[in-house]
Amino acid sequence: MNTFPLLASSSLGLSPQLSDASLSAETVGAPSRQFMPAFVPAADPLHRIREVRLEQEMTLRSIACRTGEARAKLAEEEMQHADLSLTRLHWWRRMLDVPIADLLVEPHAGLSPLILERVRMLRIMKTVASIKREAEGDRVRRLAEMLERQLLEIAPEMHGVIPWNSVGQRRTSDELGRAAEQMICVDELVGL
Questions:
Q1: In the chain, where are the structural domains located?
Q2: Neighbours of 155 (CB within 10 A)
Q3: Of these four, 62, 95, 128, 136, which has the most CB atoms within 10 Å of its CB?
Q4: What is the pLDDT of residue 3?
């Protein structure tokens, strides 16, 4: 088994308490026959793949179905301490449709300005679609349609955005929903 001197561990940003034996070819990301991301014990995460995927409301299942990748493999890769190759990071960048910098930024830094602007545009488009749906007069509807056309000139990918939900009313944090009012027998749930 090839090992690297302890001096290499400090230059790689690894914890100094790692022994020479723990720095094998597998732990520093050298290719192996079977894919298994290396896990580097570090205080700081190496990437934000899972966080970005959740922000985009994508499931591992949908990515696995779209790509044919195994869901377990994707789950391992999105662990924040999984040491992925640059090629694999670019693969995730394409799947999540974000700049690669968004996958590498510290978690507390938030989204990149480009993605944040896209999210804001989406919210505006949903509001315009809601105004179009709820408009009672032709004048308001025409203004909403004009605003929609102008927004589509800026961001054509927003075509077909659905309006905000209009059913019901938002509850305050101290109110309970209808589900909390109904008694449910646990024995019935077991049979499901």
A1: 37-110, 113-158
A2: 15
A3: 128
A4: 39
The CATH code of the domain at 37-110 is: 1.10.260.40
Cα 41-42-48 angle, rounded to 5 deg:
105
Identity of the residue numbered 191: G
CA 38/CA 12 separation, integer angstroms: 14
pLDDT digits (tens, 9 = 90+) for 124-135: 999 999 999 999
Report whether pLDDT(118) > 50: yes
Q: What is the pLDDT confidence band of residue 170, given thresholds at 50, 70 and 90?
A: low
How far apart CA 91 and CA 104 sit, in angstroms, is 14
CA distance 48 to 160: 29
* Alpha carbon separation from 69 to 73, 74, 132 (Å, rounded): 7, 7, 41
Encode pLDDT of 171-181 as tens digits: 666 666 655 66
